[in-house]
Amino acid sequence: MSNSDLLARSLASVWHPCTQMKRHETLPLVPISRGAGVWLFDADGRRYLDTVSSWWVNLFGHCNPRINEALTDQLGKLEHVMLAGFTHEPVVQLSERLRSLAPAGLGHCFYASDGASATEIALKMSAHYWLNHGQPEKSQFISLANSYHGETLGALSVTDVALFKEAYGVLVRQNATVPSPDWRDAAPGESAEDYALRCAAALEAHLQQHHQSLAAFIIEPLVQGAAGMAMYHPIYLRRARELCTQYGVHLIADEIAVGVGRTGTLFACEQAPPPEEGQAGNLRSGCSHKGRAGEGLGITPDFLLLSKGITGGYLPLSVVMTTDAIYQAFYADEVARGFLHSHSYTGNPLACRAALATLDIFVEDDVIVANQRKAALFNQLAAPLREHPKVKHFRNTGMIWAFEVETPHRDFAQRCFSLGLQHELLLRPMGDTVYFMPPYVIGADEWRLLVAHTLIVIETLC
Length: 462
Known about the structure:
Elements lengths: L2 H11 L20 E3 L2 E3 L5 E4 L2 H4 L8 H11 L13 H13 L6 E5 L2 H18 L7 E5 L8 H4 L5 H7 L7 E3 L13 H19 L3 E6 L3 E2 L5 E2 L3 H13 L2 E5 L48 E4 L11 E5 L1 H5 L20 H16 L2 H15 L1 H4 L4 E7 L2 E6 L6 H11 L2 E2 L6 E4 L7 H18 L1
Parallel strand pairs: 3-15, 5-6, 5-7, 7-10, 10-11
Antiparallel strand pairs: 1-2, 2-3, 4-12, 8-9, 11-12, 13-14, 14-16
């Protein structure tokens, strides 16, 4: 099918996500016919470097042969069976593998199909836990300012994006926010660590006043994605864990976007500094976790949410990991005390096999260590970007890079996207923030091209 035919048919029948469709009268859709590694190709053979991992999901390149092989093998065995009253080998293997890798004490996995669903599950599970414990008044939630946790109604209640609040506020339960530790907001001369501690003090004040009605605090560890890749000091994670433990509030770590190696460790929670004595661990189990890349002890949240990269970008899958203490609160004879939530494709065997293949690659290729070396090299190669006079707040956490561009164009994001395509780049800025979250298989030559062509785009638009 030609590019022009595919474009016409798509516009006539497909309602694209998070898109003002009228824009495509002047901004054509990009028809993609195949992918290979970090590259996407259209029907005319033009290539585009996938700098955003196709909405942050692709870890090991498009059409990865090892993930392909695992899926081909699974197709010949079992494509799907409902997980209510049944089980199967891939979901058991994946659950056991995640339990062995995740922060200590997270031994139970509940599956769904997407990140927003994982948020919904964690919120419902937390509130239901308190109900089962005879504390139904603990039904409120808090999140960080500028947070994003999904676009279903429950998830929107802890998402602090003005556009969504204005459009759907009448449908959404409103919950409070506390200041974000985003270091770009620090006072002149204030370090990222000091600012994070100042924000943690605001969290403590809120918990002290409202903890009796609070079920949980949900947080994106280390990087707030939709806030423009807002990065913050990991000391905030330690204080959040300590304070939630102190005030009897669940801590939900939303690692949907930042987990599975994206921040430089397999889980972002691993990078929290060691807890102070007597404050370690989660709300009920008192567990702490030794990081696997020399990043300190880390923390154990009460809920850990994973999705996006967990299947390498192949199939929809999300998982909520939680503790035995929370699991036991639902273990009873009464149906009403059980967790009342289900998805038709929960624990799909194909998605689980893709996830297992993805985790195998981490081991076989020593990906965490390899990515740390790549990030160090890429930061050197990115010096021309970091030093550009129109670039501000250049920052990096693991395999995420971001910076703001001083530009006169109010429609900078759209212009940058269009111009990037002309220079072999899939760039998807958020406002004036340009970010890179490439597949982990990106090499030095591709990174040099990314830096050089991004500089051309910036020079043209500034």
